[in-house]
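Hey, weird one. I pasted the Immediate early response 3-interacting protein 1 sequence into the form twice and got a warning about non-standard characters only the second time. First submission, copied straight from the form history:
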Amino acid sequence: MFTLWSLIEASLLCLNAICILHEERFLAKFGWGASSAAQVHGFGESPSVKAQVLNLVRSIRTVAKIPLIFLNLVAIIFKLLLG
């Protein structure tokens, strides 16, 4: 059954997956490494979609690292207590 808890749990798992991606080991194999997104853009030029996605991954990894620890603990305790 699709509930609010399953939606929260799925988003938590996706955030965990984004946070554990390693640029040199995994993303560089597919051309999504740090060197591929380090292209300098001129003033007024929008960055490519690839660069925007990599910046999003880096920002999620930076901002969500500590809160994810606590959210994972809450999810684990919730699963242990309520099944």
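That's the output from the first submission. The warning seems to come from a hidden character in my clipboard, not from the data itself. The chain has a mean pLDDT of 84.
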